[in-house]
Every structure is written in structure tokens, then in C-alpha cells.
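#dry-run=false #mode=assembly
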Amino acid sequence: MKALGKGLVLGLALVFCLGTAAMAADTIRIGVASPFTGDLAAYGDNIKAGVNLKLKEINGAGGVNGKKIELVWGDDLCQPKEAGTVASKFANDKSIVAVIGHLCSSATLAGMPIYVRAKMPVISPTSTNPTIGDVGKGWFFRNCYTDAFQGKYLASHVVKELLGLKKVAIFYENNDYAIGLKDSFIGGAEASGLQVTGAEAYVAKTTDFTPQLTKLLKDKPETIFLCGYHPEGALIAGQARKLGFNGPLFGADGLDNIDYIKIGGEAANNTFMTVPFLAAAAGPDAQKFAEAFKAETGREVDWMSANAYDCLAIVAEVIAKVGEDRQKIRDGLAAYNSADNGFEGVTGLTYFNEKGDCSKPAFVKKVEGGEFVPAE
Amino acid sequence: MFLQQLVNGLTIGGIYALIAVGYTMVYGVIQLINFAHGEIYMLGAFFAVTFILGMGMPFYLAFLLAMACGAICGMLLDVIAYRPLRQSPRLACLITAIGMSIFLQNLAMLIWGSRPRPFPSDTLPAWFDKTWHFSQFSLTGFHLFIFAATIIMMLGLNLTIKKTRFGKAMRAVAQNKTMAALAGINVNKVITLTFAVAGSMGAAAGLMVGAFYNSLYPTMGYLAGVKAFAAAVLGGIGSVPGAMLGGIVLGVAEAMGAGYLSSLYRDGISYGVMIIVIVFIPAGFFGVVIKETKKSI
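#status=ok
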């Protein structure tokens, strides 16, 4: 008991020391929440690469208002439960003035109530679920489009015009991102006169998709919507090919990762996907950014890195204007409210509506010969 | 569609059966639920990939070597983690098993990284890709390989248990350790060898799943382990034929559940089948009801 008491005192003292050390440091602290380990660690790497590149630029130029920016990493594993823990940690740390994240819609939805209570401004580079804005109550912003738009665009543009097909089977993951996307796609499909032959669900981390695929393929779809993330998407592609399906596949931004091709191999070819950013289709600023990104990381830039890069740029610009105060940063972000006073970044013009959503175009790319290429 | 779902279910069911046999054999001899068994399954897949990519071995050789490595891992697991606890309460062993499971998972993450990686499918024998299309279903060479490998291993295991001296010793140890020791059987050696057999079959299952579904990651053993454990319970834990049947039933129930009922509740359906069987036949298909008696050890 005595030893326990001593340990407790020592522990508290240690926590206290660390706490004050962090307070005293002369930096602006911003939280970055993403899955940095686990199945979707590849996405977290993208976010890290994007914000780190911007961080280097900002701090290299002397920081913001004479202070260096310091990033605090929070690993949410893309799981709502872990996201809550990360959100509480960030919210309770008074030295953190804003959060970039989370990556997965499910994680952002789980974290938002905690951030709202703590009055913490949050900007997500990647969460596309349409309902987050309602939960965010004015504290949530994003510089990517929402699935309300993406799902409809997939139906009306990708399937109908680009592929010129009619019969679609949907294979979706059971999470907030994929369900939101699926619902909006079905709405768009009805409007565009497409026929949804079947919709089946799977749970993350499954490896055997053959029962559901067998059921979907029975109705002879012309294309399959891989509505989820790349690790499962790549496996589904492989197993669909094994079951004799040779038509095109398509998906949304969740598929966009080089691991989709690495895991899927041959089967990944002839997959189409919508992404919010495509270096080849963007302006000269974006080209310059893409080159800098390649020089820094040695790989091609992806949309998540680009959006994360812009997120930190927006937050830094706001802090430079209004200082380090959570409420003021929120108001500063909300002030980007129209095309005339938007933020011009590498991913294009970003401005928010009252829900924190922004409207941006989607680009389509496809896998061909083991590489991502623009589809149009 | 029914026949295709049957093929899907038998494929995954055979794999479950291979893992479940490992659980049930170990439970048979030392009444321990070896939660680290799923990790040996995972290690089997990673060993095979390392042999193929790192050393350029052909698939069949890598398969056999991965099985051997699985056997060695099983033996090490027993000697390092469980043998020192042979006389301790069963709960201590169980907690050690969970600890070893977490340890091995994290070790694999340190060595191979946490990202899922593909199996080098171009190194698989060419006939695995051959597909036969029938009117109701299609079948690949790989399916046949999995069926054949599963059946051969199951038959081999049955013969070993029934016909060899080791099998006899194993059955004796399972019945009564003290009596077996008095009859001159080296009990510790038999237990360790049981772990070796269980480990080799687990490794073979992991490697086939990794190659067939084309994905391996350090936490892949968890879900497979839980499913196989359910299969072992379904068949009556401690019974080898029970584990085989349990695995097949679970796999087919899963495929049919996903195919004809709701795919979202696929795992729920397979566990539901297990619960129903346990409620009506508490000892499983082939289990023996043992009256609780006070044991001296």
C-alpha cells in the first residue's frame, strides 16, 4: 500500500512536470488525428506526409507570429472507440488550439461531440460522410466534398457517362462512410436511370468475400461498386475476378491508395475511382506542390496528403490573423464563407457553408497496367 | 448459387477445421484453451512469404518448411510458456496463453510491419489459377489444392492418433496424466509433440488462407482463432473428429447465412448456429460429458 502511494505521488508529479513543460514551450500546438497504425495505417502515412511538408515550409519561414508550430499526433485506428479517446486527450489539453482530422468518417462522428463540448475547432481533410456537419454544431469544417455529392456523381457521371453501363451491384462496408456513400449513390442511380441489381454488406477485416460476391454476381451486374476502403476493396477485386467477373469495378476516394494496386495486383486493373484532387488535372500551384511532395517523400502525391497539406495551411493562416484561441480560430475558419473570400490552396478554392462543408469538384482516375492514371 | 456457396463454405470450413483441430488436441491433453494458436496460424503465413520472397523457394517447399516452423513455434510455446506452469492452476495457463497471443501479434508487427500485405501470387503453381466453370458453380485449382491438403492432413492426423505409438501415448496422457507417467510415458514430451502437430496444421491453414484470399496481416490470427475455437466447441472440445466436423459446419453455415440471409450478420449467423447447438447438445457433436470431479493436480 505504501509503495502504491509513493508510486502514485511520483506519477502525479511526473504528469505535472510534463504538463507544465508542454505549457511553457513556446510553440503553437495543433492536434492531428488519423489511423497511424492498424489496417489503415497507409492513410495515416499520407496525412502525416502532407502536414509535415506544410509544417516544414511554415516553420522554415519562421513560423506563425514568431512562434513555431508543433503537431501532436493522435492514433485513432479508424475506430470510433479509439477516436473518442484521442478526442478527449486533445480536448483536455488546453495547449492544443485546433485539430486536423479525423480521417475516417466514423472516427470524426465519434469525436465531434467531445470537441463541441470543449469548444475545439476541427478541420477534416478526408471525412466525407454528409451528416458530420450536423453533429459538428459549427465547430466542424472540411476541405473535401461530401458523399452526398460524391455518390450522385459516381452514379450520374462515372457509371452512366464514363462507363456507359446500367446494371450495378453494390458491395459496401458496414460503417458510416460507406453507408452514407451507398445511400447517396442509390439516390443518384434512381435519378440517372441505373439499375441496382443488389447491395450486400461486409464487416471490416473480413478476408473471405466469396459468399456475398456469389450472391451479387447471380444477378449479372455489369459493374461492381466497391464501397469502402482499399484493403478490403483490393481483396474483393481479386475474389470477384476469381469468381469469373471481368467487367470494370469502381469506387470512391476510399480506394485511392497505392496499396490497392499492390494487394490487388492484376485484379485491380480496370478499376475507376473518384478523388477530390488529381495533380495531373490541377493548376500550376498544384504541380509545384506535387513535385515538392515527390522530392520530400519519394512517392507520387495522393489526394489525402494534398488535402491535409491545405488543412494545415488554412489553420496556420487563421492563427496568423486571430491568434491562438479556440473560439477565435473557429470564427476565423467560418469567415471563409463564399467564393470571394475563400482560401486558395493546392487543392483549389476552399470555403465553407454553415455546416462546415465545402463544394469542390471530383476527378476520376483509374487503374491501368498496375498504375493510377487519369480516366478522362 | 447453392453449389457455389457450398464450395465457398467448404473452402473456409476446411481451414477452420485445420485450426480447430489444434485447439481441440491441446485441450484434450492439458485442458488448456491455447489462445496463442491463432498467432501460429498467422506466423505460418508470414514464414511462407518470407521463404518465398526472401529466399526464392518454390511454393511447395515453402509450404512444408512453414509447417515445420509452425511445429517448432508450437513446441517453443509449450516449453517456454506453458511447461513451467504445468502444476499451477489452469487459470494461470489461460492468462499466459492470452499474453503469448498479444506478444506474438506485436512481435510480428515489429518484424513485418502492421500493414496488410499481399501474398506473392505469381509464385503460386500455375495450375492453381486454372478455373473450371460448371453450370452452377466454378472451381479453381487452388480450391482443389485446399480440399486435398485438408483431407490429407486430416486423414494423416487420424491415422497418427489411432495407429502409432505416439498417438496411443497421446490418448493415454489425455485420459490420465498420472497413470500415463506410471506406465512409462514421458508426459512432457508427448504434450510438447502435441503442440508441434497442432502448430504445423495451424501454420498450414494460415498459409493457405493468406495465399487464397491474398492478404496477410499480424492480427489475422485473432478472428480466425475465435472462429476455429467456436468450431472446436461446436464439435465437442477435446474431440478431433468433432473439430473437423465443427469447422466444416461453421464454414458452410457462414457461407449459406451470408448468401441467403443477411450478409451483414454473417459472423452473427455462424455464432448463432454455435449457440443453438451448445444449448441443445451442451457437449457438442462428439464431446463427452465429464462430471466435475476434484482432481489432485
